[in-house]
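[step 3/7] fold_predict: job queued, chain A
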Amino acid sequence: MAEKILIIDDDVDTLKLVGLMLQKQGYEISAASNGALGLAKALEERPDLVLLDVMMPDMDGYEVARRLRKNPVTSSTPILMFTAKTQLDDKVTGFEAGVDDYLTKPTHPTELQAHVRALLARSPKKASPASAAAPAEKRACVIGVFAARAGLGVSAVALNLAAAIYNRAQAEVALAEFTPGAGSLALEISSAGQKGLSDLLKANPTEITRERVQSALVPHACGVKFLFASENPREVALSAQTQQFEAIAARLSSLAHFVILDLGSGLPLFSQKILATCSERILVTDGAPNTIYRSKLMLETLNGLNIPSAAVSVVLNNRAHTEAHMTMTQAQDALAQPIVMTFMPAPELFLQGARAKTAPVLTQPANMTAQQFMKLGDMLVARQKTR
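[step 4/7] structure written:
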């Protein structure tokens, strides 16, 4: 596979000329015309080398280099600073920012190729076959929680599962509500009017940096960090921002060990894209025959999207006692799919959680429903350890 070189330069002519020179040498080229776009591409594409200009209007090359070095995804990526500056102080600043090598504009193609080859040869990725195969970082276990229809308690499952995983794993856990215009968690455990998700969805995808997503996360006493969705119905239109959702999910995966995504109900385009990349998928249903039927259709639809039923864990969330509900065995038979966990009605548990403004499972650890969430958390943590 050809080695990928990311060129970050605001000079279009330089991008074309240098890109063409390196393409002729067999390298795969990616280009960015400013620092912010360059950082976003570096995180998404993980190039083998970054060719970086100094003088750029929005963010100079020194700052780009510093941010690349701070991020575990790009901390060891070779950086060749390509600039018209020749002063010794400028070069020293570049090296202090984390640059590996310096090349002064204009340069001869042979000189450029020699510097590129030298940097790639001593890159940690090239040190040995074992290190070349190793991922740049330990990515998060991303868990998508969703349902075939609204009203099945997806947010409650996501909240309690996040708290259970934090309680069991004692690792960084983030929970993001991907439900613009239908946010509920802020009202339950924080305060109304949260705009973290909305502000990100309104941004250009290239502006959704790791730092920006990190600053939008709200820490909570339960140990989980939250990206809240707005409860303002007008913002449901933001559900069409598929690229933004994908960018947010990608950034979140480098900010925690476990990321739980509340994907709400149905299967909008952004959910289809994100579910395909999740480590785990939790389909929430209940014992009502109509709900089981719609959940079966959901599983069949996912199978058509190359997400097999075996890659989806079904949980039965019975929030009310009723003889009209199927038993777990009947539901499994109707779905032709195992049910990994059943949650029984626990109104007193959820009432206490609402009063304490925290995850209900933390208020009564001995409660049977709380214990079931802990078991589900244990199962997912154990799976992650075997990956």
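[step 5/7] annotate
Residues 126-138 have pLDDT under 50 and may be disordered.
The two ends are 25 Å apart (CA to CA).
exit 0
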